[in-house]
Amino acid sequence: MAVPKKRTSISKKRIRKNI
Protein backbone atom coordinates (compact mmCIF):
# COMPACT_ATOMS: atom_id res chain seq x y z
CA MET A 1 0.00 0.00 0.00
CA ALA A 2 2.28 2.81 -1.20
CA VAL A 3 -0.36 5.53 -1.20
CA PRO A 4 -0.12 8.91 0.57
CA LYS A 5 -2.30 9.51 3.64
CA LYS A 6 -4.06 12.35 1.81
CA ARG A 7 -5.45 9.99 -0.87
CA THR A 8 -6.35 7.19 1.58
CA SER A 9 -9.85 8.70 1.66
CA ILE A 10 -10.62 8.05 -2.04
CA SER A 11 -7.88 5.53 -2.80
CA LYS A 12 -9.03 3.36 0.14
CA LYS A 13 -12.00 2.15 -1.93
CA ARG A 14 -9.86 1.58 -5.07
CA ILE A 15 -6.94 0.08 -3.17
CA ARG A 16 -9.23 -2.51 -1.50
CA LYS A 17 -10.34 -3.77 -4.94
CA ASN A 18 -6.71 -3.86 -6.16
CA ILE A 19 -5.52 -5.98 -3.25
Summarize the topology.
Layout: H1 8-18
Structure, briefly:
The protein is 58% helix and 0% strand.
Oligomer: single chain
Mind summarizing the main beta sheet?
none
Radius of gyration: 7 Å
Report the span from N to C terminus: 9 Å
Order of helices and strands: H
- Computed structural class: mainly alpha
Q: What is the averaged pLDDT score?
A: 64
- Number-wise, the strands total 0
* Helix coverage percent: 55-70%
Q: Uncertain segments of ≥5 residues (pLDDT<50)?
A: none
Strand content bin: under 5%
Structure annotation, total helices: 1
- Principal-axes shape call: flat
GO biological process, one term: translation
InterPro entries: Ribosomal_bL32 (IPR002677), Ribosomal_zn-bd (IPR011332)
Family: Belongs to the bacterial ribosomal protein bL32 family.
Keywords: Chloroplast, Plastid, Ribonucleoprotein, Ribosomal protein
Overview of this structure, please?
- 58% of the residues lie in helices and 0% in strands.
- The protein has one helix at residues 8-18.
- The mean pLDDT is 64.
- With 19 residues, it is an all-alpha fold.
Q: What are the defining features of this structure?
A:
1 helix; 19 residues; Ribosomal protein L32; ribosomal protein; flat; mainly alpha; Ribosomal_bL32
